[in-house]
Amino acid sequence: MSMRLNSRETENLDAWRRAGFVVPGFDREKAAANAKTRPAWVHFGAGNIFRAFPASRWQQLLDAGYEDTGIIVAEGFDYEIIDAVFKPCDNLSVSVTLKAGGDIKKTLVASIVEALKLEPGHPDFERLREVFRAPSLRMASFTITEKGYSLKQGDALARPVLADFEQGPAKAQSYIGKVTALLYERFLAGGPPIAMVSLDNCSHNGDRLFEAVGAFAGKWAEKGLTDAGFPGYVGNPELVSFPWSMIDKITPRPDPEVQKMLAAAGLEGIEPVTTGKFTYVAPFVNAEETEYLVIEDRFPNGRPAFDRVGVSFTDRATVDKVERMKVCTCLNPLHLSLAMFGCPLGFKKISQAMQDPDLRRLVEIVGYDEGLPVVTDPGIINPKAFLDEVLNVRFPNPFMPDTPQRIACDLSQKLGIRFGETIKTYQAREDLRVDDLVLIPLSMAAWFRYLLGVDDDGKPFEVSPDPRREEVEGHLKGIKLGDAGPFHEQLRPALSDASLFAVDLYQAGLGERIEGYFAELTAGAGAVRKTLHKYVTANRRRGS
């Protein structure tokens, strides 16, 4: 029997059960009606991790009767996602959990009841204005990636941001400008409380969102484009909170093999789409089984019932420790190291890269020897156990279609958080020496080698998208595989740029060493493998 993702064909859930799907148990029409009249949650960023994790957990709450309102999702960067994936499927999707043992779990996700474009002038934007005026709205959350919170292009404010500063909320075009314009609607409607919750993988994500929104609110009030009281509303944590969070679930791009598996189960019309903005989406998402979500308990208009389904609410200090553990030491830096070496070495899956002895030792040393010494135990998750799970269960999972190429996207936005914070901690502590860091600076050098766009055999490969790619590649212009260097003049602008690495790497005592590593990595064909093997062998783990 064939099935399609739409409201009509999901009326008969028995057919879906027979096909092995976990199906929703709540009244979707009622949840949608409630969202129309008393919206509770709007989420910005209609991507994969949102559907695979928070939206799926919300469905559990709807099934159990802890919540009764569907989710409204808004997309502010790539409107094609709404037209290509959400609307044709009546906002339904399938979440596929790929377990390390080979088992899979297929869930029909129906908790999203509206999908809107954050596009001024579009009817959807008027609906979002209405949603933000509703006193019932408890939470606006975000998965818009780290670069979504940046107001700058390089060292200067981005042009859309500058235009928004001058024109005010009525003509906002930048992502955060549009969000702030909606928050101004809420202020004008009497200023009911709301939690603005970033769920993106970046340090102190709530502060980054607050700083971006606050910049717009302050500038607009200063120029008389909004009521003078608007910045005070945004800055009052009793009315508008910006809690910190840590989210963790590896969610690769939609995999063709997963599509085939779903087709074999009878599901049709779920082909993956690559949008004009190079977003990879599909009516299904595939992800690992492991997932963590820890949120600072600051919800001035009422806390969602997520704690009923395994989400941890805690204080800011604990979120900070958990987030630093994951983003700065025990997972994300390891991903970056694998990507920077895995791409030029020709690996197409993270799990395959983990079978390579040199790459395996690389991430073990980055994690256990160079990362764990700077981790503060958050109490609610054991760092050593977390790292063990990453290296022994999550990364090696052969059924996960995650790729080094995906991890390599937007690296200029990640290097400072993933590696720079560890370097700063080594600088600050008397019991640690920056000179003891080897594989982290080697991975930084490997980023520059990766940007040359040729593999270890000298054959060209496609470099993943990055907002600062042209800028950094400009510094490397003219460097070819086999060049002997020195490369000080080419690398100095980037290595001294704290907006890239969170520190001036020369002041940290690592700049010249990274220059040397880069020279080794570019010495000729086979130099990536030779250099990697040299340093992981010379720096064998001191113990876990």
Walkthrough of the structure:
This protein is of the alpha/beta class. It folds into 2 domains: 3-314, Rossmann fold (3-Layer(aba) Sandwich), CATH 3.40.50.720; 328-538, N-(1-d-carboxylethyl)-l-norvaline Dehydrogenase, domain 2, CATH 1.10.1040.10. Helix content is 43%, strand content 13%. It is built from 24 helices and 19 strands. The strands form 6 sheets. Strands 7-4-3-8-11-12 form a 6-stranded parallel beta sheet, sandwiched between helices. A 4-stranded mixed beta sheet has the order 2-6-5-17. β5 (93-98) and β6 form a beta hairpin. The longest helix is centred in the middle third of the chain and has 18 residues, at 205-222. The radius of gyration is 24 Å and the shape is globular. The model has no long low-confidence stretch (mean pLDDT 95).
Shape: globular
At CATH's second level, what is the architecture of the largest domain? 3-Layer(aba) Sandwich
Q: How far apart lie the N and C ends? A: 52 Å
**Number of distinct beta strands:** 19
